[in-house]
Amino acid sequence: MNNKYLGKFIVISSVMSTLLILFSIIYLLLEIYSGGKNYLTFEFITSEPKEGMTAGGIFPAIVGTVLLVLIMSIICVPIGTITAIYLNEYANKKSFFTKSIRFAVNTLSGVPSIVFGLFGLGFFVQFIGAGMDKVFSTDGNLQWAQPNILWASFTMAFLTVPVVIVSVEEALKNVPNEYRAASLALGATKWETIRKIIIPNSISGILTGTILAVGRGAGEVAPILFTGAAYFLPHLPEKLTDQFMNLGYHVFVMSTQSTDVEATKGIQYATAFVLLILTFSLTSIAIFIRYKFRKKLIV
Amino acid sequence: MNLLQKKFRPVEFIIEQLIKSVSFVSFAVIILIFLFVFREALPIFSQKEKTVPKEELQTGSYGEEPTIDLQNQTSNLDNQSKNKDEATIKNLLGNEWQPVGLEPKYGLRPLFLGSLKVTFIALIIGAPLAILAAIFSSLFAPKKIKEFIKPSIELLSSFPSVVIGFFALVTLATFLQNIFGYTFRLNAFVGGIAMAIAIIPIIYTITEDALNAVPKYYSEASLALGASKWQTALFVVVPAATPGIFAALLLGFGRAFGETMIVLMATGNAALNSLNIFDPVRTLSATIGAEMAEVVFGDVHYSVLFFIGSLLFIITFIINAIAEFYVRAKLMKRFRGE
């Protein structure tokens, strides 16, 4: 195999592919920025939509997104962290139970987000919500059995749980076994070792996982399409049974279903840019933390 | 007294059991997803046997009996006693998707075709780029450049799909139409290219991992025998990593098949039975996203949408399972030299 052209072709095409991918990332960013830059003011971020969504800002959508990821994190971070601790510290790697959990986590990360949306509607809204209404509701009005921010957060939490698990597990694997051995040799029990040695030393992984999950949750739209997102609300969500506005959903609705798509193009670009910057910076921070702490633990 | 015997500590035991039960949540959720998505889809299979009077059918039935395949019924009058689920299942296999109207038609074929079209376009465009980029950053690039490329492409995976869809809708569609000059601005091709942007990071990351997992002595042996760098890459490292690359393609396929927002925004959403890549398409996932909000709860249409969801779940489940078990087993075997 002494074909020099083949070698050149392979090297050049691999360089070109890489450049093309990097170029399209930059192009996408610049394009969305330049489309919305005239709208990107402080006021845009802090004011409400006006004149039938053709003017004004996206403040309620930002609040809705933040609330969504906040409630989501409260659910998915503990579950993800504990699962990772189980898988890495307690589990018998060969047992059927461990294998099925691992398989479930992998499967969960591959389930299409729209299926999560259907699940949220079928399980949380129609089943749990309706059940709660049967028990708590006195006047027969629907309270929980309709889309709201709590069910949307739950749905999103199960979508992002694998992200947390993978991150935390990576950090746990990074804690040298000598740490565990030293702690146990000094008489600490397993739980004491985990609580005082292992968790403090893998806090970067928990943080990375949380940030990545938040970034993912902020950007996904399909799971909240039927579990709580609203096109326009006159007030901010006040209780868990309220619907909410969401940045991604806002982009989607404004660009496909509004009556005058052309008139609001600038707002659409600007909203997309805010969303992009949000997820982008979250992911950058996560990558940075992971990179920074990766080499720290050495015996 | 045996000093080595493990002491029973109730607190430790309780904590371990608690941790174990929380970790069971992931497993339970998978079961729940399957049960609840499928539960809502069930009515289309379990409808009771009902015979439909001929006269009523000819005037067009609406509301009560929306799933009856009229053509089937009128052309096979002998089969009038056929039960309804057969009719519904036949209806699902049909060629037309027209869920609203006097005679709703729930033929899934155009939707399947749409999903496959977009997915294959995305793979044909995205996979070579991602694999070549992975080969470059894993095998050719100097360390400094590699440390820049890897996180950059990881960042691409953080782009929300709704933003990619928006980009495809407002910019890419016009741009491509100017180049190729096709009739419909939004079509499978635009959706496929946008989808390629979404699946490149997945294919890249897994391929890169697979290439890095090939033991160093493979390439060292090859280089020691006088092979050049690219010969080693192409004839030693890449073949050794093929199961991993195959897994990357499978997972990319699964992601593209289930992705919703991009196709919902960029493909035009017309359920056509055409093989032309420049025609608009409607995919399975986009159908759920577009129609679920307007459907009556408990209606046949509602159940059919949940049925599509179950199909998506099962298909991605099978693909992930293949990627997981088959490929991992094969990789392990190969590197152990069996």
From TrEMBL, chain A:
Name of protein: Phosphate transport system permease protein PstA
Gene name of the encoded protein: pstA
One GO process term, biological-process aspect: phosphate ion transmembrane transport
Domain named ABC transmembrane type-1: residues: 62-286
Gene3D superfamilies to which the protein is assigned, alphabetical: MetI-like
Similarity comment: family membership: Belongs to the binding-protein-dependent transport system permease family. CysTW subfamily.
One GO cellular component term: plasma membrane
Originating organism: Stygiobacter electus
PANTHER family given in the database record: PHOSPHATE TRANSPORT SYSTEM PERMEASE PROTEIN PSTA (PTHR43470:SF6), PHOSPHATE TRANSPORT SYSTEM PERMEASE PROTEIN PSTA-RELATED (PTHR43470)
Transmembrane parts of this sequence: 9-30, 58-87, 108-129, 149-168, 205-233, 267-289
InterPro entries according to UniProt: MetI-like, MetI-like_sf, Phosphate_PstA
Tree of life domain: Bacteria
Cross-referenced Pfam families: BPD_transp_1 (PF00528)
Keywords noted in UniProt: Cell membrane, Membrane, Transmembrane, Transmembrane helix, Transport
SUPFAM superfamilies: MetI-like
Compartments in which it is found: Cell membrane
GO molecular function, one term: phosphate transmembrane transporter activity
Automatic annotation (TrEMBL), chain B:
GO MF annotations, alphabetized: phosphate transmembrane transporter activity
Stored SUPFAM superfamilies: MetI-like (SSF161098)
Domain of life: Bacteria
Protein keywords: Cell membrane, Membrane, Phosphate transport, Transmembrane, Transmembrane helix, Transport
Ranges of Polar residues composition bias in the record: 69-80
Localization per record: Cell membrane
Main subcellular location of this protein, as a coarse class: membrane
Entries under PROSITE patterns matching the protein: ABC_TM1
Protein's membrane topology: Multi-pass membrane protein
Pfam entry (one): BPD_transp_1
Keyword Cell membrane applies: yes
Record-annotated membrane-spanning stretches: 21-38, 118-141, 153-176, 188-211, 232-253, 304-327
Sequence ranges assigned to domain ABC transmembrane type-1 in this UniProt record: 112-323
One cellular component term from this protein's GO annotations in UniProt: plasma membrane
Region Disordered, annotated ranges: 56-82
InterPro entries per UniProt: MetI-like, MetI-like_sf, Phosphate_PstC
UniProt GO BP: phosphate ion transport
NCBIfam families the record matches: phosphate_pstC (TIGR02138)
PANTHER family xref list: PHOSPHATE TRANSPORT SYSTEM PERMEASE (PTHR42727:SF1), PHOSPHATE TRANSPORT SYSTEM PERMEASE PROTEIN (PTHR42727)
Similarity comment: family membership: Belongs to the binding-protein-dependent transport system permease family. CysTW subfamily.
Protein name: Phosphate transport system permease protein
